Amino acid sequence: MTRLGALALGIVAAAALLTACGDDGGGGDVASFCDAVEALAADDPFGELSVASPQEMRAAFDELRDGVEEIARSAPDDLSGRADRYLDSVDALIDQLRGAGYDPRQLDTLRYGTATDAYEEAAVSVENAAEDACG
Fold first, then answer.
1. pTM reported for the whole predicted model
2. Residue 41 has what DSSP assignment?
3. pLDDT 10s digits, 24-70
4. Which structural domain range is residue 83 located in?
5. Cα separation of 96 and 125, whole Å?
6. Rounded to whole angstroms, how far apart are CA atoms 49 and 55?
7. How many CA atoms lie within 13 A of 96 on its CB side?
8. Which residue, among 54, 38, 57, 58, has the nearest Cα to 133 in the 3D structure?
9. How far is C-alpha 51 from the chain's CA centre?
10. 3-state DSSP call for residue 22?
11. In the predicted model, is pLDDT for residue 129 greater than 70?
């Protein structure tokens, strides 16, 4: 498998970790946060993608961002740092993909790999917070 293929699989695998959380400082509550986490986990934007066109990739990442943004809005204040990093990491991935026209062949694999690593770290951090907060 090529490095690019491994990165793409890494994104799909990381997306499976979407039992995560976030906060943009909105002062949400635990129940809303847990509902938002569950909603994103239940509707994985990458669940049906194996090979995707640039348009399908854009749509999946837009859906991911919408879900993470909702989690961020819903999260309690004590999770805001984790949530901000999670949302920032999604935005960094989208920036990389947008710059490549959502065509994996056009990606700067080093920069995209760095963005992927940051995303995976943030997703795991938020997943751990969700497990603690939501039970």
1. 0.73
2. H
3. 345 688 888 888 878 888 887 777 666 678 888 899 899 999 999 99
4. 3-134
5. 22
6. 12
7. 22
8. 38
9. 19
10. coil
11. yes
130 C-beta neighbours (distance < 10 Å), count? 26
Can you tell me the mean pLDDT for 86-93?
Answer: 94
Alpha helix stretches (DSSP H) within the chain = 3-15, 30-42, 54-74, 80-99, 109-134
- Contact (Cβ atoms closer than 8 angstroms) between residue 67 and residue 55: no
Arithmetic mean of pLDDT, 93-116: 91
Nearest to 68 by CA among 99, 91, 101, 97: 91
pLDDT of 10 above 80: no
Which of helix, strand or coil describes residue 60? helix
Angle, helices 30-42 vs 109-134, to 10°: value is 130
How many domains would you assign to the chain?
A: 1
Distance (Å) of CA 63 to CA 1, 30, 77, 133: 27, 22, 24, 24
User: Tell me, what's the pLDDT at 5?
Assistant: 41
Contact 21, 83 (CB under 8 A): yes
The pLDDT of residue 35: 84
